[in-house]
Amino acid sequence: MYLHPEAASAGTPSRDVLLVSAIITVSLSVTIVLCGICQWCQRKMGKRYKTSLETVGTPDSSRGRSEKKTIKLPAGGKAGNAAPAPGQPPLDESDRKTEPHSSVSDLVNSLTSEMLMLSPGSEDDEGHEGISRENLGRIQFSVGYNFQESTLTVKIMKAQELPAKDFSGTSDPFVKIYLLPDKKHKLETKVKRKNLNPHWNETFLFEGFPYEKVVQRVLYLQVLDYDRFSRNDPIGEVSIPLNKVDLTQMQTFWKDLKPCSDGSGSRGELLLSLCYNPSANSIVVNIIKARNLKAMDIGGTSDPYVKVWLMYKDKRVEKKKTVVMKRCLNPVFNESFAFDIPTERLRETTIVITVMDKDRLSRNDVIGKIYLSWKSGPGEVKHWKDMIARPRQAVAQWHQLKA
């Protein structure tokens, strides 16, 4: 059947049109498929990239998360891996990575420096959290009585957790043994150098004591820190009435040390100033005044004066003294004394100040002493360090007189 060309074009699409339509359809299909593939690839690649971020920095990606959650401090571990203290929130991992490690070490160094600046024997030590300020350590000893020989045996074994009394952060402990109320006769252990957990294992005998007198005594142990440049610093004491102990056999005890009681009473205070001149290699000691001095005379008063000794390596070098103030417990001296001290000798120098009571008919009595050096008691060390820190300035401070 023959059709007119116009009629044919109006009713049926031409070959070119069909070809173009087929090309467009194929192109759209290919585009859709490619887009799907790209999206799938992006999802897979994104997941893989995220996983790699989570596991970076760990030797085994399969245990990366568990390591983040289990941060512990083993014995001897570094501070950077320490677990948080009780009561504190756990350390966030992101904070650990962004905070420089040097800041931690700087903080530790700063705290260490502050602790070293504390005076010896000071209880204000914030670096030992959880330790009571009254913790003076404890001592182990044994006691028993030999009825055949009328002898009391006391064995000093050891001590633990003694406080540091020296500027170096340690102590040189020894023990005095008394049978109170007798304080004239005492026995002593050896000195254990630089040891806060000393072992003595020394045995002491009190011979010729009838049992009925022994049970009336009190065994008194006093632990002290030995110091050859100044007075020995008391660490703690223990007292145990012997009538409460089964002395028929050796009994061993662990006792906490208690603060030592001073039955001598107050000896008064002395106000003095120190002035250090490094260019002149000298220290000027100004004895200003005293207050509430202990009365040494029968009339309830004293005739005080002050001696000032310069000592180097435990040897007396030079002595100065003030005038005597008659019948006065609150004297005003205002006398200055200069001592030549080279800078290199400061660490081995001690200034000993003794307040005396003048007596014309007998020997002069000692009212009290003060030892000034870089390793004396807390108050004395503070004064000594203030003097060095403020050269050419007179630094004044009150000091409690000691026996």
UniProtKB/TrEMBL annotation:
<dbReference type="GO" id="GO:0006906">
    <property type="term" value="P:vesicle fusion"/>
</dbReference>
<dbReference type="GO" id="GO:0042734">
    <property type="term" value="C:presynaptic membrane"/>
</dbReference>
<dbReference type="GO" id="GO:0030670">
    <property type="term" value="C:phagocytic vesicle membrane"/>
</dbReference>
<keyword id="KW-0479">Metal-binding</keyword>
<dbReference type="InterPro" id="IPR035892">
    <property type="entry name" value="C2_domain_sf"/>
</dbReference>
<dbReference type="GO" id="GO:0030424">
    <property type="term" value="C:axon"/>
</dbReference>
<dbReference type="GO" id="GO:0017158">
    <property type="term" value="P:regulation of calcium ion-dependent exocytosis"/>
</dbReference>
<keyword id="KW-0576">Peroxisome</keyword>
<keyword id="KW-0564">Palmitate</keyword>
<keyword id="KW-0597">Phosphoprotein</keyword>
<protein>
    <recommendedName>
        <fullName>Synaptotagmin-7</fullName>
    </recommendedName>
</protein>
<dbReference type="GO" id="GO:0005544">
    <property type="term" value="F:calcium-dependent phospholipid binding"/>
</dbReference>
<feature type="domain" description="C2">
    <location>
        <begin position="266"/>
        <end position="399"/>
    </location>
</feature>
<keyword id="KW-0677">Repeat</keyword>
<dbReference type="GO" id="GO:0000149">
    <property type="term" value="F:SNARE binding"/>
</dbReference>
<dbReference type="GO" id="GO:0048791">
    <property type="term" value="P:calcium ion-regulated exocytosis of neurotransmitter"/>
</dbReference>
<keyword id="KW-0449">Lipoprotein</keyword>
<dbReference type="InterPro" id="IPR037741">
    <property type="entry name" value="C2B_Synaptotagmin-7"/>
</dbReference>
<dbReference type="Pfam" id="PF00168">
    <property type="entry name" value="C2"/>
</dbReference>
<feature type="transmembrane region" description="Helical">
    <location>
        <begin position="20"/>
        <end position="41"/>
    </location>
</feature>
<dbReference type="GO" id="GO:0005778">
    <property type="term" value="C:peroxisomal membrane"/>
</dbReference>
<feature type="region of interest" description="Disordered">
    <location>
        <begin position="52"/>
        <end position="106"/>
    </location>
</feature>
<feature type="compositionally biased region" description="Low complexity">
    <location>
        <begin position="74"/>
        <end position="85"/>
    </location>
</feature>
<comment type="subunit">
    <text>Homodimer. Can also form heterodimers with SYT6, SYT9 and SYT10. Interacts with calmodulin (CALM1, CALM2 or CALM3). Interacts with CD63; required for localization to lysosomes. Interacts with APP.</text>
</comment>
<keyword id="KW-0472">Membrane</keyword>
<keyword id="KW-0770">Synapse</keyword>
<feature type="domain" description="C2">
    <location>
        <begin position="135"/>
        <end position="255"/>
    </location>
</feature>
<dbReference type="GO" id="GO:0001778">
    <property type="term" value="P:plasma membrane repair"/>
</dbReference>
<feature type="compositionally biased region" description="Polar residues">
    <location>
        <begin position="52"/>
        <end position="61"/>
    </location>
</feature>
<dbReference type="GO" id="GO:0030100">
    <property type="term" value="P:regulation of endocytosis"/>
</dbReference>
<keyword id="KW-1133">Transmembrane helix</keyword>
<dbReference type="GO" id="GO:0030672">
    <property type="term" value="C:synaptic vesicle membrane"/>
</dbReference>
<keyword id="KW-0812">Transmembrane</keyword>
<keyword id="KW-1003">Cell membrane</keyword>
<keyword id="KW-0268">Exocytosis</keyword>
<keyword id="KW-0458">Lysosome</keyword>
<dbReference type="GO" id="GO:0005516">
    <property type="term" value="F:calmodulin binding"/>
</dbReference>
<dbReference type="GO" id="GO:0051050">
    <property type="term" value="P:positive regulation of transport"/>
</dbReference>
<dbReference type="GO" id="GO:1990927">
    <property type="term" value="P:calcium ion regulated lysosome exocytosis"/>
</dbReference>
<keyword id="KW-0966">Cell projection</keyword>
<dbReference type="GO" id="GO:0030276">
    <property type="term" value="F:clathrin binding"/>
</dbReference>
<keyword id="KW-0112">Calmodulin-binding</keyword>
